[in-house]
Amino acid sequence: MKSKRLDKDTIIAILLISPSIIALGIFVYGFIAWTIRVSVSNWIGLEPNFEWAGLSNYAGLLADPRFHIDVRNTVIFTLLFVGGCLVFGLVLAILLDQGLRGENFFRNLFLFPMAISFIVTGVVWRWLMNPAQGSRISGLNLLFDSLGLDFLVNEWHTTPTWGIAFIAIPAMWQMIGYTMALYLGGLRAIPESLREAARVDGASELTIYRRVILPLLRPVTLSAMIILGHISLKVFDLIIAIAGKQVALDVPAVYMWTTTYDGLFYGRGAAIGILLLLSVTFLVIPYLYYTLRQEAEL
Predict the structure, then answer these.
(1) CA Rg, the chain, in Å?
(2) Contact 284/261 with Cβ under 8 angstroms?
(3) pLDDT tens per residue across span 135-146
(4) What CATH fold (topology level) applies to the domain 66-297?
(5) 255 neighbors 67 (Cβ within 8 angstroms)
(6) pLDDT score for 92
(7) pTM score
(8) If residue 55 lies in a helix (H) or strand (E), which one and from where to where?
(9) Mean pLDDT of the chain
């Protein structure tokens, strides 16, 4: 009787989750398979063309100077965005962990930018980082000029070669609060007894953070790196809102859009999408390996 009941419960559970499994199979893995098929075809123009092209679309990307700019910009943006969020997020979390008065206010204040879409952030920061000078000066350049900090007035995202670095500033502004929340949760999960034991042994506060707190925050850091890295690899709307479609600020997601919908090179656009998927996959693999290893040790 018990086994029959168990079988019935199992069947009901399968029926309940089957719609989600079917939807996942069609709209995620099914579309990935379709994109792979298109990426190895000669589909150019509105008329579908599934003629086999092998890896020619991928080879063309590797030899494309514009794609080289995309990779360079992505590396610069990722390093600055992820690194800045981790450093400033950790600093803010440590400050809030000191039991400051008005902690709830500051925590909500730091988290507020995350509630804004990258499009809105881009529109606001496009004005703040207006590169115009002279009679049309505005935004941060106007602020610097009014405070006598003329050496800080610059061309922002229109700066040759390093313009993509300034795009990372609004991205950090939006996600630092989220990183702070992750670190704050990690700090609050560390038993106070560990800190007290270190103090009894004569360790300074700096030593406690360096030898005790930061090592225990490694899982939080890894999770934050995966989330932020995933965002940086597929950034699109922020760049479009701030600078539009400029080759100097191009990234794979923007190149995929222009190639697919402006140039109608569907095969090459699909190849860019698959390369983005692979880059995200390689980013997630270390996290999965670490998680599985931790579970095995438990």
Answers:
(1) 24
(2) no
(3) 889 899 999 999
(4) MetI-like fold (1.10.3720)
(5) yes
(6) 94
(7) 0.88
(8) none
(9) 89
